[in-house]
């Protein structure tokens, strides 16, 4: 594994690169950092060049306390792809990272070889009148009334499976330090996200949305199917819960490996080493 910090507009992004093969950029969601993907990246590094990073303002990246937008987050992801993947990569995003991935696919399609968006909590994709369209607004009101600790506890309680396993200690410590960034700075961009359905439906690369088998009916899993239906994309069921890849990276990785490998094989030629006589 090698790491570094990539200067972008207003921040330096901490990143890690593992393995070899087709580039796979993994985007983490709200309140987390690239450490969430450590186990998963190790599992996939025999087949992919796996790029993980801390989004601006979070954990080991700089830029904390400064307002950010999804357009800026997508631009950051594109900069990493340009610097570390030669300008084009497969992209996987979980939760808010799936929202960033969808924004990247809509705004910078030239950088995306294929997108896998796992459980984007795009509550505004839910039908008018659905009470869960107000979930982010209610969390915002709780933050204004009681601050980041109470809001963080309520946020965690809303995600199935959280509390049934332990986050790696170093990652949990970094996440606690990023709570104010999440609720005080990033919250408006998550709460206001509406997919660019027109741009996504015109994508010339494969897009797959998906959700975990244990998450049916949740505010963060339901939008995936609705978005897929609206843009004419494929949808896939993944194993387990929202952050299944933390406690069980091998199980989640087996599903992601199959999907990403299929995606890659359909859009590129056979690797040179397999066409030689050696």
TrEMBL record:
InterPro entries reported for this sequence: AB_hydrolase, AB_hydrolase_1, AB_hydrolase_fold
GO biological process, one term: glycerolipid catabolic process
One GO MF term: triacylglycerol lipase activity
Highest taxon of source: Bacteria
All copies of domain AB hydrolase-1, residue ranges: 22-175
Annotated keywords: Hydrolase
A Pfam family the protein falls into: Abhydrolase_1
SUPFAM superfamilies: alpha/beta-Hydrolases
Protein name (record): Alpha/beta hydrolase
Organism whose genome encodes this protein: Streptomyces violaceusniger
């Amino acid at each position: 594994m090698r790491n570094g910090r990539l200067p972008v507009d207003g921040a330096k992004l901490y990143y890690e690169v593992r393995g070899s093969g087709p580039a796979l950029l993994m985007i983490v969601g709200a309140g987390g950092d690239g450490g969430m993907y450590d186990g998963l990246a190790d599992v996939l590094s025999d087949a992919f060049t796996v790029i993980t990073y801390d989004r601006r303002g979070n954990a080991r990246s700089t830029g904390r306390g400064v307002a950010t937008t999804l357009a800026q987050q997508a631009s950051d992801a594109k900069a990493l792809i340009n610097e570390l993947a030669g300008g084009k990569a497969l992209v996987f995003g979980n939760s808010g990272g799936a929202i960033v991935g969808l924004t990247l696919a809509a705004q910078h399609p030239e950088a995306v070889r294929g997108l896998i968006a796992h459980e984007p909590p795009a509550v505004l994709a839910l039908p008018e009148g659905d009470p869960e369209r107000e979930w982010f607004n209610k969390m915002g009101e709780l933050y204004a009334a009681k601050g980041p600790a109470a809001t963080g506890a309520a946020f965690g309680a809303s995600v199935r499976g959280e509390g049934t396993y332990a986050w790696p200690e170093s990652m949990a410590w970094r996440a606690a330090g990023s709570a104010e960034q999440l609720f005080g700075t990033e919250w408006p961009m998550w709460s206001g996200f509406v997919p660019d359905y027109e741009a996504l439906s015109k994508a010339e690369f494969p897009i797959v949305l998906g959700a975990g088998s244990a998450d049916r009916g949740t505010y963060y899993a339901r939008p995936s199917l609705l978005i897929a239906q609206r843009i004419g994309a494929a949808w896939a069921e993944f194993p387990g819960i929202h952050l299944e890849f933390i406690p069980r990276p091998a199980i989640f990785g087996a599903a992601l490996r199959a999907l990403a490998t299929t995606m890659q094989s359909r859009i590129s030629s056979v690797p040179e080493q397999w066409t030689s006589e050696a």
